[in-house]
Amino acid sequence: MTRPVAVIIAAGPGVSGSLARRMAREGYDLALVGHQEEALVELGGQLEKLGATVSHAVADVTDAAVATAAVRGLAHGHGRVDWLHFNPSAFRHKDPLSLTSAELLDDVGLGVGALLTALQAVHPLLQPGARVTATGSMAADSPWNEAASLGVQKAGLRNLIRSIDTTLEPQGIRAVSLTVRGTLGKEGPFTPDRVADAIWAAAHQDESEWRTEVPYTG
């Protein structure tokens, strides 16, 4: 039987790495997209030790043509996609009086727009029962004014996930974002492993009571 395949956008250490390891332990093969070769190779080695077949590509996901080619190439290499996870966001320490409109658009291009690129690249290979997930944040509801673009990204991401879920539900594909209501740390309820487990649970929620946003409070 063919193993399921997960594509992770902005793979590396942290939540995306923890989620990738959880997926590998659960029997997934992985296709990783990121911007640092060294981090991708290191994570790939960890996943292979867990029994996964792993491929990766270094790509700027804000460049639609480059990202499409990279994601599509990885997906076709595996022959199917059962899970797309979207992780990137841009942190820019600027308040509304210093943040320019061009900077805001650049950040939204990474934290929201790149999801469209990745989704459209993998869509032909998405299997019925597939999942689209995204790492959300409490910044969507409680933005910090000194990093104004982050709240806009996370609010936009959550909104887009809802539209994706509505669009793909007739195909048997569901989408959900996990709103992390806390600060990531090395200990306590907001470690990357704990957040990754919450994303896993959100992706496996009962479809009869499906929610496109699941809060994680630890």
> How many strand units?
7
Uncertain stretches? none
Biggest sheet character = 7 strands, parallel
CATH architecture type = 3-Layer(aba) Sandwich
Please, what is the CATH homologous superfamily? NAD(P)-binding Rossmann-like Domain
How would you describe what is shown here?
The protein is α/β, with parallel strands linked by helices. The chain is built from 6 helices and 7 strands, in the order βαβαβαβαβαβαβ. The chain has a single domain, classed as NAD(P)-binding Rossmann-like Domain (Rossmann fold, 3-Layer(aba) Sandwich), CATH 3.40.50.720. Strands 3-2-1-4-5-6-7 form a 7-stranded parallel beta sheet, with helices on both faces. The protein is globular, with a radius of gyration of 16 Å. It comes from Nocardioides agariphilus. InterPro entries: NAD(P)-bd_dom_sf (IPR036291), SDR_fam (IPR002347). GO terms for molecular function: oxidoreductase activity. Belongs to the short-chain dehydrogenases/reductases (SDR) family.
Secondary structure layout:
Layout: E1 5-9, H1 15-25, E2 29-34, H2 37-49, E3 54-58, H3 64-78, E4 81-86, H4 101-122, E5 126-137, H5 148-168, E6 174-180, H6 192-203, E7 213-216
Parallel strand pairs: 1-2, 1-4, 2-3, 4-5, 5-6, 6-7
Helix pairs in contact: 1-2, 1-6, 3-4, 4-5
Q: Would you summarize the structure shown here?
A:
The protein has 218 residues and is of the alpha/beta class.
Jot down its keywords:
alpha/beta, single chain, 7-stranded parallel β-sheet, 218 residues
